[in-house]
Amino acid sequence: MSAQLKLGVNIDHVATLRQARGTTYPDPLDAFPLCEAAGADQITVHLREDRRHIQDRDVRELRKRLNVALNLEMANNAEIVAIALEVKPDEVCLVPERRQELTTEGGLDVVSQFTALQPTVARLQGAGIRVSLFVAPDRRQIEQSAALRAETVELHTGAFCDAQGPEAARELDLLMEGARTAHALGLTVNAGHGINLATLGAILRIPHMDTLNIGHSIVARAVFVGLRAAVSEMRAAMNAYTGGAV
Ligand code: PXP
Known about the structure:
By secondary structure, the protein is α/β, with parallel strands linked by helices.
């Protein structure tokens, strides 16, 4: 029997709505208690270099107030690394970042950025922060993540969630193979990006999953049913996970 699949709720887009008007609401600090009450195992936020949604104050206050774990997504950027070392989230997920992108578009290129990532991973771990690397389900990227001694890889599910038909089947195969590779290397395996109630069923077929980080679809659904209900729906749907066991 595998442990229960964990749900990380990404609340970036609560902050997106606030920043759209430059108001003080909706406040991510009012969002997290509803997520916790509905069964979120962790809160995930992405502090982007351009501060388009989450602000430094949000991260600092979440760190003080959360009852569940805090997962901070961030680029390997000196200014943001300094904030992470000061705030000390439970986990940092290193992601690639480009200013013009709508959202994180690809996985981190651990292979080509190995030397640049090495000191950051070591400094974060030295401060007691677990390190996750957001990578495409590619064997070399996963192997180099293990070589970097990251605790976790988060497999990028965006390509699968955007695909249809045979292409979706191929992408799902890559995710399943990637999860097996990562697990065999001793890495904790998470997944995220683009997951919604429609794509979740297939995602639940990927073995060895520890945590799913889900944001946009939950906040979008919350517009109609409220945040607590939207998180509860996702949590309930995830309870069918068997971890690959039949
Ligand atoms: N995981 C990572 C590493 C991400 O960058 C994002 C997007 O911020 C997510 C999960 C959540 O993706 P979505 O908002 O599409 O559910």
